[in-house]
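TL;DR need structure tokens for one chain.
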Amino acid sequence: MMSLWIVIALVVLLGVTGSPNVKVSPEPDKVGLLAHPNSVPEYAEEETEILGQQEQLIDLVVEEDVMATGELNPNHYQAQRAAKVVQHYLNTRHGSPFRLFGLNRVHSGTAEDVEDSGRKYQLEISVKEIIGNTSEKCSAEVFFPRGERQGLDKVQASCDELLKANTTAQEMALYEQYKNNQGPLSAQHLPDSHGRIDPDMRPFWHLGIVASSFIMLNESNENTLYNMAQVANITQLPTENDQLKFDSHILLHEMVSQEIIHWKLQFTWSPQEGVKVHQMEQLPHRHELEKPQNTN
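>> reply
TL;DR here they are.
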């Protein structure tokens, strides 16, 4: 009888504490929600698998006091966070309503301290162009500055094959449709709470991802991991200098802190000039917006 109680006690203890060597990733159907009450599905339909990537980012919320140098575990949070920044970089340089980049896999990576200025990551990664469903293995370098120069400083990536797809005809057709639009575009909740997007609105969901990459690129450091969660709303403004102009409210998911961060963006797009962000402003947290005003 005594031995039976010992076995039961051990089972309970293991069930509570778990093994220090076991890492559990979120269930695939819950990765867009995680634990935050304001969370929304991470990405819609076919884009969930590539852009969400959360089921593959096993160690990303694990913090360590000392950053590793030399060769990195490709599945470890250091390599994955640096590689995710490359995705944002490619979207800001080459993204469009019909060209969108996602991190597919980290093959290898190294990290080294650069004197007192920061840390440099050398990566071999696979990047996927989502809409055209093409992949390429790319070399990339990411430099994170240290100290007061927090924020991303420099990214280099060579993914030439992914840029060969010609989307000009699709882009021109969309541009002409909305350039002289008599009823300017206005849409909300891309995607909705069930992960659905009207097919006509999907190019503007893609534009929102590209525009939000400018924020995520600017805000990223070694201790963050950003995904775009939702275009809360997007409104077309009068065309300026042959550029389609938009106001948008974007929700970003910072996976390390589990915060949903609200940003206001104003950006332009045309096939010739690509996406240009002109204003970006972080909005107060929801609980701060709901604080009663001081009437004294």
